[in-house]
Design brief:
The strands form 4 sheets. The chain has a 6-stranded parallel β-sheet. Strands 6-9 form a two-stranded parallel ribbon. Helices cover 41% and strands 17% of the residues. It is globular, with a radius of gyration of 19 Å. It has a domain of 193 residues: NAD(P)-binding Rossmann-like Domain (Rossmann fold, 3-Layer(aba) Sandwich). It is an alpha/beta fold.
Length: 287
């Protein structure tokens, strides 16, 4: 059985992948108690000594505010330590699988979707950190998989707590009757995270390279939130009162950093569209 070291093991995506693939792989969870990502030299030594076949690196500080307020500290975690893990993998014959992000395109002034060959342009430190790792791996590794993900969503499972996503945010607004604003000036892919768990085995064996893993979407975030609310059974009155348009955020520059997942689909990964992803998610959870 293939041995996979997985960082950020208690995070949403790592937990989901482990839950649905525990009979196919031997996972080695790596916790922050074992390795300090603010010390890249120690990180490289740790992973060089680790007995595994593949390192699935999901650990990161993805909080935008933290990345902007502590650029040096988060550079160590998000950029330098990820590259240190990649160096360790290269020196010991392990495959590196790295989670990157749509945020590498959040500074583009032309509409998406963007492909793997499009040049990144990010206005956030987090996006630039991830883009730097993407580029280093492309230029220095022979055996790797970089996965750029969109905004992922899902609902809670035992020992699996989802990160904030469009479905969870809308459900929270409806359950608590809290009017919540969703931006009208943004269009991005939003993907049911179950795709990653379902396709994990195939992703592990993809030919070396960079892949966009995202479901198609043509809706703004506000339009998407209204669709989700209606699917939850909200009345038009509830939708109008609780799902509110935010016309000010990003009004100076409409954001469109959708990902083109054509390469991943051509490689055999099964991905959907936002509407069908929402339908599948709510059906899976009994809605």
């Amino acid at each position: 059985m293939q041995r996979i070291a997985i960082t950020g093991a208690t995070g949403y995506l790592a937990s989901l992948v482990r839950l649905y693939n525990q009979d196919r792989f031997s996972f080695i969870p790596v916790s922050r108690g074992q390795v300090d990502y603010t010390h890249p030299d120690e990180v490289e030594h740790f992973f060089a000594q680790l007995n595994c076949d593949l390192v699935f690196h999901t650990a990161a500080n993805a909080t935008t505010a933290a990345c902007e307020s502590d650029p040096a500290g988060t550079d160590l975690v998000n950029r330098d330590s990820a590259i240190a893990i990649a160096r360790a993998c290269a020196s010991t014959g392990k495959r590196m699988m790295f989670i990157s992000t749509e945020q590498v395109f959040n500074g583009k002034d032309v509409p998406g979707p963007f492909g793997e060959d499009d040049e990144p342009c990010s206005v956030t430190r987090y996006g630039r950190q991830k883009a730097a790792v993407d580029a280093w791996m492309r230029d220095n590794l022979e055996d790797y998989v970089t996965i750029r993900l969109s905004w992922m969503f899902g609902l809670p499972l035992p020992r699996v707590k989802p990160s904030p996503g469009i479905v969870g945010n809308v459900l929270q607004a409806l359950r608590t009757a809290t009017p919540t604003h969703f931006t009208c000036n943004e269009r991005r892919c939003m993907t049911y995270a179950q795709h990653l768990a379902d396709e994990f085995g195939r992703i592990c064996n993809l030919p070396s390279g960079l892949y966009h893993v995202a479901s198609d979407n043509d809706l703004t975030t506000y339009e998407a939130a209204r669709l989700v609310a209606r699917r939850f059974g909200a009345s038009e009155r509830e939708v109008s009162q609780l799902i509110l348009p935010d016309t000010e955020r990003y009004a100076d520059r409409f954001r469109d950093f959708r990902l083109d997942a054509g390469k991943a689909r051509a490689a055999g990964l099964e991905l959907g569209a936002f509407e069908s992803d929402v339908e599948r998610c709510l059906t899976d959870f009994g809605w």
